[in-house]
Structures are given as C-alpha cells and as structure tokens.
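Structure in, sequence out. Go:
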C-alpha cells in the first residue's frame, strides 16, 4: 500500500456482504498494510477487521478511525484479496467471514463485558436480604469477575437486562467492557549462551561446570535441551546469569507437528508414461495458467510425478501447494515430500492444534515452507509465487466443505491457479465426471498413466451374485463361499486381506421383532445404529445415543432384532471364521484418537495384521503393499441414494477399493459381492474401465440436464418448527417462480425444482426442505440468485428458519 494512503477498505467477520471505509490516524498510518488486522469501532462495539486495500475518491460520509493495528506482519499476501473476493461472490458468503475462515483460528480479539461484585454488593450479599435471582447473580460473581456470557450460562433462568441495569445503578455490581485476548500466539522458548565477557574461572559445582562446558561446545542451546542433559539446569542458569557467566534470551520456536525423523530419498526412475507426464507439465512452467488432469490407474505412481514436478519448480524458486483429501493420507504424502525435500515442507490441516497451525501459517508466510501439503482448507495457504497447485484424488468428496462457507477446494484450486497465472494438476484413477468432461471440451489437458509401476498387473475382479445367497442363514449370507475360500488361501500364503463394507457400527437397522418398529433417532428421521463396543444405539447424523438395553418405543418389547450389517459385526463374524487371524478395523469409530490411523497402517506394513475390515476410509489412495485380496461385502450400498451422483460415487468407491489389491510384488485379486451385477457402475468397476463408465454416465447426465450440462445451486432450508419451515420454504419457492416469470426472457434457462422435503426429512431436530435451481449457464444462474438476494438484503432466512445457499452442491440429501 502507498504510505500516503489514509483511507482503507476493511472487511469485518460479520454477516454483511459489503466492506467498510476507515481512516488511519497519523500515528498508525505507517503500520497499516493489506493483510493485517485492525481494531475498529463498529456500531457500539469494537471488533477485528481485515485490511483489504487503500480506497481512493471518497464520498463526503463521516469516516471512523482505526483504533489499533493488531499485527506486526500481514497475515496474508495482498495477492489473496482477489481470491477472497471471488469466493465471497461465487459462494454467496460475506467477504470478512471468508477471510476469517481462511486464516488459522483463534486470532481475533473482540469486546466482551465483565461483571464484578462491588463492596456494597458484598455487603448486600452478607445481609442475606435479597430476592433469589439477585442472590444467584451476586454469588456467581463473588469469587471473582465473570464474563457476561458465562453468567448467562451459569444461571438457568432468564436474566432481564433491566435487572442488571438496576443492580449496577444501586452500585452492587460493576460492568466493564474489556477486550478479549487472542487465543493463538507465537511460542517463545528460553535459550542460553555464554556471556561475551565472563568472570575469571572460579570453582563451580559439577553441574554448573557441565552447563558452561556444554555452552562452550555448542554455542547456544535451549533450556529444554539443556534440561535433558542436566536435569537441574532450570534452577542453575539464573544464578549463573547473575554471576555473569551466561545470558538468557527468548527465541521464537515452531511447534513440530511431525514428531519423527524421516530418511531422505532421491528421485525414482520413471516409466515412459510417467516421464512423459513430467516433461509435459514442466514444459508449461513459464506459459501461464493451465490445468492438467492426470488420469492414472491405481498404483501407477502419480505421487512420483508430483514429486519430480515439484522438484523442478522448487529449483526455479517457485512454491508448490498439494491438496490431499484426508489427514491420514497427508501423513503418507508428507513423508514422501519430506524425504525428498526436507524441512521446506509445511502442513496445514485440522488435525493440528491451533498453535501448530498458526506456526505453520507463519512459516509459509515467511517463505520458510515452500511446499505446503494439506487438506481442503490448505487451499488458503498464504503462499506467494505459487508454481503449481496439485489436487490428489481430485474426485474425492472431502474437498467439498459443508456448513458455513460451502466451497469445493478442487474447484478453488483451478480458480487460484487462474488468478496466479500458474498450473493446476488434478490427479485421480477415477476422475470426477466434471473434470473428465473438462478434458473432453479441452478446458483441461489430459495426461494418462495406464500401467502400474514396475509392470505390476491390475487385480483380477470376480463378481459374486448375492441374490443366490439371499436365503442363506448366518455368516454365509454375508461372506459367500468363494470369498471365504479366497480368504483362506490368502491367509495360508501369509498375505493380507482387506474387507470393505461401507457402514460402521454393529447393526445399522435395529427393528422391534414384535411390532416391526425400527429404532429411530429422537431428533432425526433416521435409523439408529447399535455400537456394541460402546453398548449404545447411536445416531450417525446428530450424535444422539441411547442405551443398548432400550425397549421398543411403540410396544415396549425388549426383543430387538439387529438387522443391517456394520463393520463392527463383520469383524466379529470374521474373527469366528478365522480365529487365528489377527484383525484390525478402520472406520470412524476406531480412528478418533490422534495417531490411530498411523498405528493401523503400521500394523499392515509390519505384517502384524492379517485382515483389515474397513469403511470407505480404506478406499482413499492408501498404499498397502502386502494386501493381495480385497473382498467387497456389498457393493450396492451407495447405489440407491437419491442423488444424481450416486452412480459416479459407487463406481469411484469400488474401483478405488479394488485398486488397493496387488500394489506390492505379488498380484492381487478382488471379490465383489453385489445384488446388482448388471448395473453399469458395478460392471464398469469390475472391468476397471473408466471410459466405459464415463460414456454411459455422461449420456444420462445429458438426458436429464444435470451437471456438467447445467449448473446447480441448492437452497437448503431448515427449522425447528415444521409448519414455519414449510411455510417459509413455499414463500421462497414462490419468490423464485415470480422472479423467473418477471423476466422470462432473461431467465429462460433457469429451472426451479421444488420445494420438496429433503430425503433426510429431519436432522438434529431441524425439519429440512430444498429448492434446486438449475441454470443452463453459471452466469445466468448466478445472476438469478444474486437478484434474489439483492431483493432481500436482510438475507433469505426468516425468523427461526435458516436458508443456506449451496453452490455446486455435493450432498443433495
Ligand atoms: Zn415394538
Ligand atoms: Zn440424530
């Protein structure tokens, strides 16, 4: 920013779409810069705002002044401002909230009100002559000042504002406005080194002498390290400093999220296809924006392509951003990148503590981390001079953020690459229909890897028709005899088996055996799942749980039939079938603890696990070198979802799971059990034929005018009152219809579907409705929704009914 600029544009983290103009007083003007936070007066409060840029040509409105500048250094480079604006505009989300979402959490400071007891108040409390609520309030603040919102929480009845006012007037309490401190800060560590001029050596105790010797040898050392060698060091350094032997100072340190060291490696030999892909990408380094889709079969060595491209870019001084769908996969990717590039690798994901995330953020900002690996939120990494943005497993639905700012990181990667005039590289064995369509229409360039590395073959896939075992009782119904036999053979050879079932828990469909009533969640329109390990029925949508000994809500019977197979029950069945095999299970229930996924993966690698049972978590790009048999227990679970992407998801999931077999030296095989052997998603997965699947699916999308042939925005309406929610939904539907009718020529290509009740009609006590807007072009659809919003500047939500706008929705249920 030019130093003479006095007026600045500020975004605030509040639900408002516009930005605000503030002036910087002379004393602060020199410190204001784009990407820094400022403390500003806003209405009657003081809040944090983000400086987006200077403003010229002001109107004559009265302009408020910035109160303080909160950062020494900007938190994001100015080049990210257009990116934030694009996101706000496209995803219909307030700009300041977009910035807040992008930054590591815990930084903002804001006002709060603190209540404390006065001496008069203490006297009144001692007198005991108070009405109950006043007594409650005064006793709460008696031990010490209390925040207003905590006071509200502690006292279960409503506290009238007038009562607080009158207590203050009577001088019994004191209310003070305070500024909360930011929760996340840089970490400082104590270091010691020898003083420049030291007193002549006198006799020192042994430990003191040892410290001096250590400092003489190493120059500077942290107190933490010192304590490992001399446990009493902390108590000794102070007197040594006083006596003039050494100096103590503080240094900024980074919290290390990695924990373990990694053996360095070097570039591996590429096969012809890999080499061609690397060469093609490298030839575009200086040619501006371009997106590549790297379509490589499972096990074809896509990561090595990423590594060698990254190497070339780093040599030319540019940075690399790598997005990976899951934290478990980040560790895998991070290990390979750190082995190749060492300390210049940074990571960003939700598994980091707030402090670690903040440290990583500043390492990236400071140019120390030049390769950043992370989950979807890493798309906001404050890198400058990006050379390429790599999105691994680009088809994965975890790139879509639900709730709050609803964005798709894969799509944002392409947007950011375009804005930065650099490359984007999307990789997958099973590309999304959207991305592949973009190669067909030549928006993206296709790169292909058809062979597995080291000439390994793709696994052979055999279909088992579950309709034939439908009447079988017991285990045979779920584990067919061909699968059982294949497991037997695999275990006898000392190899590993992976069993895939996309449903966790013990029984996913408990039903009363007397009256037939399913066990349902109290707050959702959904069947509960029995979890034997926690001895409870649990709702997978809202977390509601009830005891496993619950009785039927309708007839009171305690005879509950446990229908519906989950991974927990499957694990138990397998343990009975193969009592000597060592089993592990990988699903959301077994991986909640930090490091648990790594432990599971290590068990496979060290051959201490024979059979792994898992949900879709196992399908995601993991490299399991010793698995030679994959058993898909039921391939059909995702087929019947009321969603136009159901077929695409099923194909991707099955092809990915199958791809976990035979990634090591020995060939793999897959047994796929299904009720729909003739369904094209399943048949294409069996043949591992993406093209066949694409050709079928794209015809279906075209016929029904679904993406990629149209663009979609979903209005997700929800509320606790069923009547209000329904009423508001219909009002909204009518608004859409009349907007379309009022400008029928302009909005001819807009299709309004609904309002309809969502397929999951109630979740967490909220009734859910939807309106789907389809547009023949993105521009028309956005113009339509923008007009709808500007006609209702207060927002589309009303009373207790919330309306969320989901642009390019992923989960339509
Ligand atoms: Zn019953
Ligand atoms: Zn629920």
């Amino acid at each position: 920013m030019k130093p003479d600029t006095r007026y600045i544009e500020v975004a605030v983290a509040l639900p408002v779409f516009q930005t605000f103009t503030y002036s910087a007083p002379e004393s602060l003007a020199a410190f204001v810069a784009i990407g820094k936070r400022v403390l500003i007066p806003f209405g009657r409060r003081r809040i944090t705002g983000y400086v987006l840029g200077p403003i010229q040509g002001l109107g004559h409105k009265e302009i408020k002044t910035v109160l303080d500048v909160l950062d020494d250094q900007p938190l994001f480079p100015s080049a990210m401002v257009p990116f934030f604006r694009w996101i706000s505009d496209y995803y219909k989300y307030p700009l300041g909230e977009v910035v807040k979402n992008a930054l590591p959490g815990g930084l903002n400071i804001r006002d709060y009100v603190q209540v404390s007891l006065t001496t008069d108040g203490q006297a009144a409390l001692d007198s005991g002559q108070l009405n109950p609520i006043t007594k409650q309030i005064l006793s709460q603040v008696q031990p010490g000042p209390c925040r207003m919102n905590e006071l509200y929480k502690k006292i279960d009845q409503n506290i009238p504002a007038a009562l607080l006012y009158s207590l203050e007037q009577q001088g019994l309490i004191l209310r003070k406005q305070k500024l909360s401190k930011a929760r996340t800060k840089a970490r400082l560590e104590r270091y010691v080194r020898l003083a420049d001029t030291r007193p002549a050596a006198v006799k020192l105790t042994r430990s003191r002498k040892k410290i001096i010797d250590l400092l003489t040898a190493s120059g500077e050392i942290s107190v933490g390290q010192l304590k490992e060698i001399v446990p009493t060091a902390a108590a000794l350094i102070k007197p040594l400093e006083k006596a003039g032997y050494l100096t103590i100072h503080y240094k900024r340190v980074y919290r290390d999220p990695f924990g373990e060291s990694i053996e360095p490696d070097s570039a591996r030999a590429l096969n012809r296809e890999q080499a061609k892909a690397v060469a093609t990408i490298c030839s575009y380094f200086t040619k501006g924006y371009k997106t590549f889709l790297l379509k490589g079969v499972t096990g074809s060595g896509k990561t090595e392509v990423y590594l060698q491209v990254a190497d070339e870019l780093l040599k030319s001084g540019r940075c690399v951003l790598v997005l990976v769908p899951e934290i478990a996969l980040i560790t895998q990717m991070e290990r390979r990148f750190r082995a190749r590039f060492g300390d210049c690798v940074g990571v960003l994901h939700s598994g980091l503590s707030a402090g670690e995330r903040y440290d990583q953020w500043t390492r990236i900002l400071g140019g120390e981390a030049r390769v950043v690996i992370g989950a979807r939120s890493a798309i906001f990494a404050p890198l400058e001079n990006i050379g390429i943005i790599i999105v691994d497993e680009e088809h994965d639905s975890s790139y879509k953020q639900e709730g709050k700012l609803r964005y798709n990181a894969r799509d944002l990667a392409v947007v950011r690459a375009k804005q930065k005039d650099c490359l984007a590289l999307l990789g997958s064995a099973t590309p999304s229909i959207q991305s592949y369509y973009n190669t067909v229409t030549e928006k993206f360039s296709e790169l292909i890897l058809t062979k597995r590395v080291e000439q390994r073959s793709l696994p052979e896939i055999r279909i088992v028709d579950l309709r034939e075992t439908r009447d079988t009782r017991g285990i045979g119904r779920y584990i067919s005899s061909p699968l059982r036999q294949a497991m037997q053979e695999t275990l006898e050879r000392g190899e590993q088996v992976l069993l895939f079932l996309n449903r966790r828990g013990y029984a996913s469909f408990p039903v009363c055996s007397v009256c037939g009533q399913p066990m349902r969640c109290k707050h959702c329109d959904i069947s509960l799942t029995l979890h034997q390990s926690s001895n409870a029925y649990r709702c997978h949508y809202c977390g509601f749980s009830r005891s496993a000994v619950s009785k039927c809500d309708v007839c009171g019977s305690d005879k509950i039939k446990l229908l519906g197979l989950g991974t927990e029950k499957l694990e138990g069945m397998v343990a009975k079938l193969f009592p000597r095999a060592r089993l592990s299970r990988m699903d959301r229930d077994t991986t909640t603890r930090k490091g648990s996924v790594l432990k599971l993966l290590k068990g496979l690698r060290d051959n201490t696990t024979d059979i792994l049972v898992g949900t879709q978590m196992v399908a995601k790009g993991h490299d399991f070198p010793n698995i030679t048999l994959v058993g898909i227990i039921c391939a059909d679970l995702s087929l019947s979802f009321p969603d136009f992407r159901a077929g695409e998801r099923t194909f991707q999931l099955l092809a990915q799971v199958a791809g976990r077999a035979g990634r090591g030296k020995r060939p793999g095989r897959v047994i796929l059990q299904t009720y729909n052997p003739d369904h094209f998603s399943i048949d294409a997965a069996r043949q591992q034929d993406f093209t066949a699947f694409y050709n079928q699916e794209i015809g279906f999308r075209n016929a029904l005018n679904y993406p990629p042939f149209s663009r979609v925005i979903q209005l997700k309406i929800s509320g606790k009152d069923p009547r209000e929610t329904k009423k508001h939904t219909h009002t909204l539907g009518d608004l859409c219809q009349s907007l379309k009718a009022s400008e029928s020529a302009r909005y001819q290509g807009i299709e309004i579907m609904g309002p309809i009740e969502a397929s999951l009609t109630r979740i967490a006590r909220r009734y859910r409705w939807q309106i789907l807007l389809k547009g023949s072009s993105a521009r028309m659809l956005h113009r339509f929704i923008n007009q709808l919003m500007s006609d209702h500047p207060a927002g589309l939500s009303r009373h207790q009914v919330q309306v969320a706008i989901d642009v390019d929705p992923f989960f339509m249920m």
